[in-house]
Amino acid sequence: MVENDRWGIFFAHLVLILGVALVVFPVYIAVIASTHPSGTFVRGVMPLLPGPNALENYRTVIFEGRSRAGTPPIGGMLWNSFVMAMAITVGKLSISILSAFAIVYFRFPFRMFFFWVIFLTLMLPVEVRIVPTFQVVADLGMLNSFAGLSIPLIASATATFLFRQFFMTVPEELMEAARVDGAGPLKFFKDILLPLSITNIAALFVIMFIYGWNQYLWPLLITTDPEYYTIVMGIQRMVTGGDSEPLWHLVMATVVLAALPPILVILFMQRLFVKGLTETEK
Amino acid sequence: MQTKRSTFRNGWLPYALLAPQIIITLIFFVWPASQALMQSVYRQGDAFGVRPPTFVGLRNFAMLFDDSLYLNSLKVTLYFSVGTTVLSMGLALLFAVMVNRMIRSKDTYTTFLVWPYAIAPAIAGVLWWFIFNPNIGILPYVLNGIGYDWNHRSSSSDAMILVIVAAAWKQISYNFLFFLAGLQSIPQSLLEAAAIDGASRMKRFWTIVFPLLSPVTFFLLVVNIVYAMFDTFGVIHATTEGGPSQATNILVYKVFRDGFVNLNMGSSAAQSVILMGIVIILTVIQFRYIERRVNY
After folding, report:
1. Tell me: the pLDDT tens digits for B1-60?
2. Are residues A173 and A245 located together in one domain of the fold?
3. Pairwise CA distance, residues A48 & A45, whole Å
4. Do residue A163 and residue A257 come from a single domain?
5. What does the pLDDT read at residue B47?
6. Helices A111-123 and B13-25 meet at what angle, rounded to 10?
7. B9, part of any domain
8. Which of A148, A211, B32, B123 could connect to A132 by a Cys-Cys bridge, CB 3.0–4.6 Å?
9. Cross-chain Cβ contact B25/A155 below 8 Å
10. Which domain holds residue A125?
11. Which of B6, B169, B178 comes nearest A278 by C-beta?
12. Confidence at residue A3, expressed as pLDDT on a 0 to 100 scale
C-alpha cells in the first residue's frame, strides 16, 4: 500500500491473534477437558492444562461407554455417521449431476416444470416440514435404517444448479465433435463431461460430506434404536440424558472425536473446500 | 432458460436421468409440504377415530397469533437472528479486512479462521455450554471475579447470550471467507488513488471498500438470517432446550416441540406453513438480488 505504517500492521496482527484465539479457545478447552479424570470436574473450575487421563478417557468412550449415564460406546456411532455422510454425499452428487445433464443437454416437454420442482427443494429445509416428513418416512417403514437416514436428505437443488452452471460453460464444440464421431448422450457424458467435472465434484464432495456428517435433527427424529445413533446426535443424549451433571471428561472426548473428521477434511482440502463453498452459494 | 445450441434428441432418456431426483423430491419434499398445508387447516381427530379431523379454515393460524407463547417465540427469534447475524458478520468483516492487509501470513491466518465451519451447530452449542457452565465453566469464574453472577439456567438474558455466542462463533468462518473474497476483488488502483489524494485508512474503508462490498454484505445478510432461523436447531436443542421460561424458544424449536413432544399437529403444521412462507420470501429476495446486484 501507499503509506508505510508499522503500527497499523502490528495492530492488525494483534486483532488477528485475538481472533484466532477466540476461534480456537472452545476446542482447546474441549481437548484439555478430555484428558482429565472425572474428579477434576467435581472440585471446581475447569483446568487449562492437560491432565493425565487422555488415553483412558478415549478408550472408555470408544469401546465401553457408560450405559448408566446414557453413553453407549461411540465406536459404532462414528461408523454410523460415516456411512450416513458418505451415502448423502454420493447420493446427492449422483442424482444432481444426472439431472443437470438432462436439463442442459436435452430439450423435452415439461423441462421447465421439472426445473421448478427441483428448485422447490431449496425452499423447504427439513426443519420447516419435520412432522409430515417424519410421517412419510414412518409410513414407508424407513425408521431406524440407513436408507431413512440418508435418502430423504439427498435431493439437492444447490448441487444441481452448480452442475448446470458448469455444464453451460463447457464449449459447444465438444458435444458437436462427439456427435460427429457418433457418440451417443451416455457415452458423451461418461467420456467427456464426467472427466471435465472432476474438480467440481471434488469441491462439492467436501461441502456435502460436512453437511452429511453434521446432520442433527433428522437422525434425532428417526432413530430410536441406539444401533443407528450418529455421533453428533449422540452427544446430546450424553449431555441431557442422565439426571446428574454429565460426565464432562467423556462428553468432551466424544466432542473431540465427533468434530475431528470434518475438521481434517477442511484442513487437508482447504482449496477445494473454499471453491465448493464460494461457488455453490453464488 | 437457456440450453445448449444443439441438444441430444432422445425420447425417454432425459426423463430417466431426472427420475431419481424428481421422485425423491416429490416423496420427501412436495408431499410432506402439502400435508403440512392440509393439516394446518384441520383440527386433528382423536386417536380412537371417534371424532374425525374437522376442517377449521384458518383457525389454527388465528390461534397462533393469539397465543402469547408464539408471539414470544417470534420476538425471541428476532433477537436471536439479529444478534447472531450482527456478531458473526461484524467479527468476520474485521478479521477479513485485517487478513487482507497481510502478505506472507495471509494463508496461515485463513487456515486458522476457517475450520470452525466443520463443527456442527449442536457441537458448537455443547462447547459453549461447557465453557459457560455455572459450576465449573471458565467464563463464569472470570465473570464472577468482576462481580457478575452468570447463570444461564435461571437468567433469560444469560441464556440468550450463550446461544447467540455459540451460533455466531460457528458462522464466523463462513462470513470471513466471503468477505475476504469480496475484498480481494476490489481494485487496488482505487485505494491508491484515494490514498494519494490524502484519504485516511478509515475514510478509504468507509467511502470505498464498504460500499464496494455491499453485494457480498447483502448476500451474507440473507444467508445468515436463514442460518440463524433454521440451522441453529442443534444449538438450542443440545443446550437450553428453549428455556429458561421460553427465553430461547426460537420458531424452529417450537415447531419441533409442539409436533413431537406436545403432539399438537394442527398448530405445528400451521407453524411449519408460516416458516415455509418465511423461507420462500428470503429465497426470492436472494435470487432477485443475484439478478440486480446492489451497486453504486
Report:
1. 556 777 787 788 989 999 999 999 888 888 888 888 888 887 766 555 566 677 777 888
2. no
3. 9
4. no
5. 55
6. 30
7. no
8. B32
9. yes
10. 76-222
11. B178
12. 61
Interface of B with A in 72-111 (CB under 8 A): 91, 94-95, 98-99, 101-102, 105, 109-111
Report yes or no: A133 and A152 within 8 Å, Cβ to Cβ: yes
Q: Closest partner residue to B24 among A155, A266, A267, by Cβ? A: A155
User: CA B261 to CA A249: how far, in whole Å?
Assistant: 30
What's the number of domains chain A is made of? 2
Q: Are strands B54-55 and B42-43 parallel, antiparallel or unpaired?
A: antiparallel
Which of B3, B95, B130 is closest, CB to CB, to A252?
B130
Name the strand (E) or helix (H) holding B279: helix B265-291
The answer to whether residue B35 is domain-embedded is: no
Q: B136 lies in a domain? A: yes
**Choosing among A7, A106, A166, A193, which should be mutated to test the B contact, i.e. which has the most B CBs within 10 A?**
A106
Asked if the structure places residue A273 within a domain, the reply is no
What is the Rg, in whole angstroms, of the alpha carbon atoms belonging to chain B? 24
Decide if pLDDT at A281 tops 80: no
In tens, the pLDDT along A136-161 reads: 888 888 888 888 888 988 887 888 88
**Distance in angstroms (rounded) separating the CA atoms of residues B117 and A9:** 27
Domain coverage including residue B172 = 60-291
Specify which of A65-69, A166-170, B164-168 reaches the highest per-range mean pLDDT.
B164-168
CA distance B169 to chain A (A): 7
Hey, is the C-beta of B233 within 8 angstroms of any chain A C-beta?
Answer: yes
ipTM: 0.86
Confidence of residue A213 (pLDDT cuts 50, 70, 90): very high
Joined grid coordinates for residue B122: 449442536
Domain count, chain B: 1
Amino acid, single-letter form, for residue A81? S
Phi, psi of A71 (to 5 degrees): -125, 95
Task: Please tell me whether residues A49 and A182 are part of one structural domain.
Answer: no
Chain A contacts of B272, Cβ < 8 Å? 128-132
CATH number for B79: 1.10.3720.10
Whether B1 has its CB under 8 Å from any CB of chain A: the answer is yes
Smallest Cβ–Cβ distance between A106 and the set B8, B141, B195 belongs to: B8
Residue A256 lies in a domain: yes
Examine the domain organization and report whether A109 and A181 are in the same domain.
Answer: yes
